TrEMBL record:
Pfam families recorded: HTH_41 (PF14502), YhfZ_C (PF14503)
Organism domain of life: Bacteria
Domain YhfZ helix-turn-helix residue range list: 26-70
Name of the molecule in the record: HTH gntR-type domain-containing protein
Taxonomic source organism: Streptobacillus felis
Gene3D superfamilies reported in the protein's UniProt record: Periplasmic binding protein-like II (3.40.190.10)
NCBIfam families: YhfZ_full
All copies of domain Uncharacterised protein YhfZ C-terminal, residue ranges: 78-301
Amino acid sequence: MNRIRVLNKVDIGMIKIARDLLMLEIGDRVKSTKEYKDEFNLSVGTVHKAFEELELSGAIKLQKKGAFGKVITYKSQELLIQKAELKHIVGVMPLPYTKRYEGLATAIKELFIKKGISFYFAYMQGSRIRTKMLKEGVYDFAIMSRLAYSAQAIEGVKKVLGFGPNSYVSDHVLLSLKGNELGNRIGIDKNSEDQYYFSTQYFKDKECEFVEINSDNIIKNLRDGIIDKAILSIDELEENLVSDINVEKIDIVDKNNANEAVIVIKTGNELIESLVNDILDVESIINIQKKVLNKEIVPRY
């Protein structure tokens, strides 16, 4: 029979204080006993005991700086994470149906697990839907393109990390079924910020009819005659057998912004912002992503 752990006041205080300390850097001022007492509704004795436990465990080292108070001179992120009892973090990203997405998911999960955090990905198509779920507190962070983040400009969402060129997709192209290149029914997905933006920009001065679709079904819609043309990332195209599909290069302003992956959080979520910045090393993530792309390692996410 499993024993149920009952948290006492010191345990609860230590969890709250450890989560706050995770957001500090070496040299930062630590809040006073009174500040923690008032902020977390703790007694002075509880705050003292919580700090005593954190220091004895080796999670932190503090130094007095006169009237300035105490500063943090050392912190073990792994031990602080344990003391903070961060059970898990959940990110949301597009379905990993391309090697590039698989590489990104593999890298992010690996780095979180190395720091002792249970990490999970949820998969959801459409950056607008991912943003909505993020704002509602369903997920801790979301992955989308830099273009999608900039285009939405939604209050309450903040970009905290970017992974550089071609980390999200390598390129976007215009597709049409061979033998049907002259049709003017254009597939457009209103839930996909990138696809919607490219479609409206590329065809804004052309005579055409927009047909609402799900971007997951573009190739099927082309083959079924539902649409004549559509814009899609070439990464998705490479995962399908497309000998019957024409591929045409396109040139659109902001195209490069659609190729970069960024992590966004709900504004004010300082703990997740700190963990993302501390744990997700961009260079390591890109190296792992490249190894997945080159089939040097098996994706695990």
